[in-house]
Amino acid sequence: MRLGSVLSEALRNIGSGVSRAFAMFLAVLLSGTLLGGYEAMTVIDLESQAVQRINAYADVNAIVGGTVDGTACDRLSDAGDGMTGTLAGAMRAGEQVVPLATPGKDISSYDVTPGMIRLIAGNAKADVSGVWVPRDVAKDFGLAVGSALRTREGTTRVAGVFDWPNDGRDTRFAYAFIVPVSASASTFDECWVKRWPADGQMENLLYATLVAGSGSSNAGVTQVNKGFDAHYDARASYVNRSTRWMPWVGLAIGVLVGVFGVRRRRLEYAGALHSGQSKGAQLLGIGVETGVWAGLATFASCALLLAYAVRMSRSDWVAVLAAAVRTPLAVFAGVMVASLLVGLLIRESQLFRFFKKR
Q1: Distance separating alpha carbons of residues 259 and 25, to the nearest angstrom
Q2: What's the mean pLDDT in 329-338?
Q3: Non-local CB neighbours of 6 within 8 Å, separated by 6+ positions
Q4: pLDDT tens digits for 205-214?
Q5: According to the per-residue pLDDT averaged within each range, which of 5-14, 227-236, 265-274 is highest?
Q6: According to the model, what pLDDT value does residue 13 have?
Q7: Which residues pair with 131 in a beta bridge?
Q8: Sign (positive/negative) of CA torsion 90, 93, 99, 102?
Q9: Are 331 and 254 in contact (CB under 8 A)?
Q10: Which burial class, exposed, middle or buried, applies to 17 when counting CB atoms under 10 A from its CB (0-12, 13-18, 19+)?
């Protein structure tokens, strides 16, 4: 048979309903979308956990109980080894501040290095030319960026306002004035470092910020937010997720669909061979028919997963989609391979046996 004849016959089989293309299309579409969607939901949930930890500063560690070199602490931001989100800064308790608006009420202040301002602001270009205040202080005193803060000690400019919610993190910055100072201005009490993804190397680097010979033998590393598991491993959570086997499940389902689609028409295929159709032409026809309904179903499934990933992902929809589409692609591969292999096993000599079992 010529190529055009094979293609036209395959399309006629699809159009006339001989191949049950719509039912097979639905089987591939539903299996690929449901299994792939479950994978996408799992990855998005893991992604949400990671985002929640990052927003709550659960990935921020601090060295306490020693004397910290502020310059060395700020330089930890350059020790990220190519990892994103590495910020570090030092802090120490400052003088009590008495705003002129409330002369009978003093508020704590903390002297911090420029790196700490960038850490709490989450911005590498944060303004360090004035004091920073948490949202609650700004609300109570009517402050905004650029406002003049008048205190008993003098007037200073508000360089920024930051959020410091009550989510388990260290509460000292929740209601205080944060005053940027030079990293080389004396020493500090603590060094904080924020790094994602977290690893065990940063703890050693934190100890390296201690001033030698300063009696820091009791220094130790702790979490800034102790409300989260200190042993959390984002990579291990992803690698060991329960849905990592979904592509194999999809492949198995695809094989079953492909086997069913060809076996139910084995009498027809054996009869075609008896009528003179070559095995090559028959396999091409099977491949075309299967490729049409399985390919369209896979495309539709991937499109639905794309829409879901873009709509629901909180940070990286590409990573979610890359994990999810493996399943519908595995279903498609299973359908195609199984259809061709089962079609290859059908022989003209089986015609009489198939006829008796019809």
Answers
A1: 14
A2: 94
A3: 281, 284, 285, 288
A4: 888 889 877 6
A5: 227-236
A6: 66
A7: 158
A8: positive
A9: yes
A10: exposed
**Amino acid at position 309, single letter:** A
**Rounded Cα distance, 295 and 189, in Å:** 63
pLDDT at position 82 over 50? no
For position 353, what pLDDT does the model report? 64
> For strand 190-194 and strand 87-93, is the pairing parallel, antiparallel, or unpaired?
antiparallel
What pLDDT score was predicted for residue 80? 56
Residue appearing with tokens 């921020």: 60
| Beta-bridge mates of residue 8 | none
- Do 32 and 331 form a contact (C-beta atoms < 8 A)? yes
Token code pair at residue 255: 């094989």
Please list, in sequence order, all residues whose beta carbon lies within 8 angstroms of the beta carbon of residue 44, skipping any fewer than 6 positions away.
Answer: 309, 312, 313, 314, 320
Amino acid identity of 13?
N
Secondary structure (H, E, C), the chain = CCHHHHHHHHHHHHHHCCCCHHHHHHHHHHHHHHHHHHHHHHHHHHHHHHHHHHHCCCCEEEEECCCECHHHHHHHHHCCCCCCCCEEEEEEECCCECECCCCCCCECEEEECHHHHHHHHCCCCCCCCCEEEEHHHHHHHCCCCCCEEEECCEEEEEEEEECCCCCCECHHHCCCEEEECCCCCCCECEEEEECCCCCCHHHHHHHCCECCCCCCCCCEEEECECCCCCCCCHHHHHHCCHHHHHHHHHHHHHHHHHHHHHHCCHHHHHHHHHCCCCHHHHHHHHHHHHHHHHHHHHHHHHHHHHHHHHHHCCCCHHHHHHHHCHHHHHHHHHHHHHHHHHHHHCCHHHHHHHHHCC
pLDDT for residue 56 is more than 60: yes
Q: With contact defined as beta carbons under 8 Å apart, do 38 and 246 qualify?
A: yes
CA distance 347 to 272: 10
What strands, in cross-sheet order, belong to the sheet with 60-64? 148-151, 154-162, 131-134, 177-180, 109-112, 87-93, 190-194, 60-64, 220-223
pTM over 0.85: no
Tokens of 188: 């500090």
Which residues have a Cβ under 8 Å from the Cβ of 136 and sit 6 or more positions away? Answer: 164, 174, 175
Q: How far apart are CA 75 and CA 14, in angstroms?
A: 67
